[in-house]
């Protein structure tokens, strides 16, 4: 397990990261979500030991201190020695982790193949495309078989094809490492993550499993319009146990239902029972985007 | 192999790939060869250029072998040092700026070794270039003028090399201190100049300042008597080592791990 405990970091008067605590299990993937400036990169740099925290600790399996040998790190904008070839860079990276030349070369070939870079590996990195560099960035993070991978925006700068390739790699590599990665592309989080950490202004605003987050999304909202629409009718509806929240919007009402079976049928029943005329009924299921916005606003 | 040697080897490879390992020695070679040759053929050159009126007698005192090499060294001290600093002033700060250091420092390597590997490479390059240039100068001088006694040559060369190491340490330190490579290069040149000027200014009262290294070296080449040689060597070596480890320590201290 990797534990991030009460980590805080300020730059001047700005609290970039403010008392953040969460954990990542090996073999699972945690997504760090949040708008630009939420403190994601700062937090990841602290976890990767490239930045010191003002307070708080990062531990792996109970050990704190220099954890760099257990971590593979991909920065947001990976910059390589462009005069090296892909495999030279990989071997150099591997040897800095203490692998022998042979081990590093073997491991490099294996990862290059997984990343689909075998054909380019003997060419200078200077001539590589952005997507190839991003995949090389992923591969170099794994050269030492780290227990944890820390990836800063691994997919955000890629086109849809590149994004899919990197997400596939993450899915494969999740089997043997814990992954902590940041993104602001919400739909990607849904693909690979097990846990989700929403950050805003340096603080965690929501920390839940992906299922937990999706079950929030799973509770559907229904937009209804009835005549006559009275305050009394609304108040009674709001008191029903299967209603989570009720919002009035012009002449319609948006009812957010508790998750679970049959809440929508109960709503329909309530409408017919109270004898009002139903003029509009629309069901919608909020996407991750809506939860994101909702969480960020609250 | 330790991380230090790996990173050091990477610096050599980078210098080779960027052709710095070729052109920098070539600059020193050209300086080392051209000076004895032009001095020797100056009379012929002037005549061929037709700059002298008919019947004018041109005579220059024949310089000694030591004087020729000392004047070569004067070139190394001006052009050579400038070129060396220009070639390496972006070595550390360039990596910080381009962020190529991020994925290296995220590995279990010491920040101190990262900086030290770079500093040691510049020193190696300085020694290589200077050795090559001086070797060429000594050879051409021996053919055209004569030889300098071996032990004088060795101590004179050693002294100037120490000066180059001092400049390399300054460059590393200023690269750690300044984000901009240009600023680091400029301040390195300026402080080397100040060291030289200061020591010649205080030559009478403090005949052991490290800034004397290059001038004392020239005196040795010319086989002139030198005062305070030991003091100069000790202060020069002390300052080089001190500045180098100061740079390494300051960079290492920035490591969060």
UniProtKB/TrEMBL annotation, chain A:
Q: Which Pfam families match?
A: ABC_tran, DrrA1-3_C
Record flagged with keyword Nucleotide-binding: yes
| KW Cell membrane (keyword) present | no
Q: Give start and end of each ABC transporter domain.
A: 2-226
**Family matches, as SMART domains:** AAA (SM00382)
Q: Recite the UniProt keywords alphabetically.
A: ATP-binding, Nucleotide-binding, Transport
Which Gene Ontology terms cover its molecular function? Answer: ATP binding; ATP hydrolysis activity
Q: Which family does it belong to?
A: Belongs to the ABC transporter superfamily.
Q: What is this protein called?
A: ABC transporter ATP-binding protein
UniProtKB/TrEMBL annotation, chain B:
Ranges that cross the membrane: 21-42, 76-94, 115-141, 153-174, 186-208, 228-251
Keywords on this record? Answer: Membrane, Transmembrane, Transmembrane helix
UniProt key word Membrane: yes
Q: What protein is this chain from?
A: ABC transporter permease
Provide the species name. Alkalicoccus urumqiensis (Bacillus urumqiensis)
